[in-house]
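step: validate -> pass
step: tokenize input -> pass
step: predict -> running
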Amino acid sequence: MNWEGNFTYFNGSVAKPYEVKVVLYEDVISISDPNHPDAREIYYPLQSCSFKVLRNQAHVFLQKGNAEHLVIPIEDPVFLQLQSRIQEGHTGWFRKTYQKKGWVLMGLIVLVLFGLMLLAFRGLPPLLVRLIPVKQEIIWGQQIYEAVMEDAVIDIAGTELLRKFASNYPLSNTYPIQLTLVKDTIANAFAVPGGNIVVHSGLIASLKNPEELYALLSHEATHVNRRHSLRQMLGNLTGSYLLSMLGTNFGGLGNTLINQAGMLQSLSYSRQLEAEADWEGQELMVKNGTNPAGMTELMESLQAAHPALNSNLSFLSTHPVSANRIKSSKEFSQKSKFIARAPNPVVREAWNSLKKRYP
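step: predict -> pass
step: emit ->
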């Protein structure tokens, strides 16, 4: 699937910007004149592209050492796709080098990074996330989940229905996703690092159709798959503490995160992480044969019910819905071509039972 849109373009020679049509292909990005459908496309390899984010706008430089660049909103799906592909290219070298040279090389890298991190504490959480093994995150996540659930009232029968609803809907190839339904009138849901997703009964009561529930689960699963929850929990710790974790086995970090488990229910994601969870969640819906328009319907249903969701722990307070998010989700649905899967009577029965339980 190619991604496209019209954005501001600076050619690096004159100050006057132009509007151009941008198309993101597998490994190249092209620009052309949007006013002339037959205009020739100019192609740039993604490996030569870089970007800087300033005031919610991404300045995407098309050539190394050249001022020629595009200006794209950071919430736009084109930039999110572009950012993901550029970052994959940058992180691949780091992982290979780390595996070959081990802790000796890691020590040298830490010495170089130490000075930089003093000036850029905000860059520490993403760095640590890349260094923490998935297996370790899963272990910590289970302990965090158990700590969060200590005071929760788990609806055992409702949890079985929720799991049955998602039994034929793969949510991750990396993490062992486990769903839990708790009895709580606050309309909320949250993702725990490592694979657990907790849904409040009050949120089930706010949903109108199965596609909205699939959208909710896909959105939260993306937070797990992209390690957003872990990243945000790390972001709530002090920069000096995170610096002290570099070059260690992260044992103390795990205990700290477990002690901070209570923050998960009120963990608020940035607009960029929310946008990423939206479009990757919709991609997951398409992959599973579910109409991605369910994501838009979920947002609109919760937004319409906003007067009833005024708690600091509600889904809207931790996952704020904006006009741009709704617009982007609609555009995704219009562009995507999903193949609807055959109706599953077990899933339909589970959905009906959940709604009878929490109308």
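step: describe -> The domain at 3-78 is CATH 2.30.29.30 (PH-domain like).
step: cleanup -> pass
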